[in-house]
Design goal:
This protein has one domain (14-144). 21% of the residues lie in helices and 12% in strands. The protein has 7 helices and 5 strands; from the N terminus they run ααββββαααααβ. The chain has helices at 8-11, 19-24, 68-71, 83-86, 95-100, 110-113, 118-121; strands at 34-38, 45-51, 55-56, 61-62, 131-132. The strands form 2 sheets. A 3-stranded mixed sheet has the order 1-2-5, with no helix packed on it. A hairpin with a 4-residue loop joins β3 (55-56) and β4 (61-62). The longest helix has 6 residues, at 19-24. The protein starts with 7 loop residues before the first helix and ends in an 18-residue tail after the last strand.
């Protein structure tokens, strides 16, 4: 693993980051792994507590990150190219979205605190509140709406 450049997120464009820098931007909130409802008539995106079947509720991480696309074909790979197209449904506190919008990272972000659990400690993750999509039929997802908005 290569060493991260100091405060790289402030000087390096998203498209020029190393893979390690790109991955380090993830704050581990888990919100991108939640199933969302998009209302066609308004374009509104609503978050549910229903998480991807690979989501580990205790760690807020994918349980099979390296093979996720093979197991969950609909999994969205976030890249500098895909980001502009999907940023609208990402959480408002997401580092990728914030940097894309030329905004700073939140003060609780692990890159700023040096603490990998700072997202959870700040109450900004979905740790221990999700249910798996494997047990909740899609027609019942509206029963699991949460307040987070993108």
């Amino acid at each position: 693993m290569e060493k991260l450049r100091p405060r790289f997120w402030e000087t390096v464009p998203l498209s020029k980051m190393t893979s390690e820098e790109w991955e380090a931007l993830c704050d581990g909130c888990g919100k991108c792994c939640l199933n969302k409802l998009e209302y066609e008539d308004t374009g509104e995106v609503a978050y549910t507590r229903v998480a991807c079947r690979l989501f580990d509720d205790g760690t807020c991480r994918c349980s099979n990150y390296e093979n996720r696309k093979a197991i969950v074909p609909e999994c969205v790979f976030l890249t500098p190219t895909s980001l502009p197209k999907i940023a609208y449904w990402m959480p408002s506190t997401c580092a990728y979205k914030l940097l894309h919008q030329k905004k700073p990272l939140p003060d609780w972000h692990p890159l700023l605190t040096g603490d990998p659990d700072s997202t959870h400690k700040a109450g900004m993750s979905v740790k221990d509140i999700t249910v798996s999509e494997a047990v909740v039929p899609e027609e019942d997802w509206e029963d699991y709406l949460i307040e987070e908005t993108p």
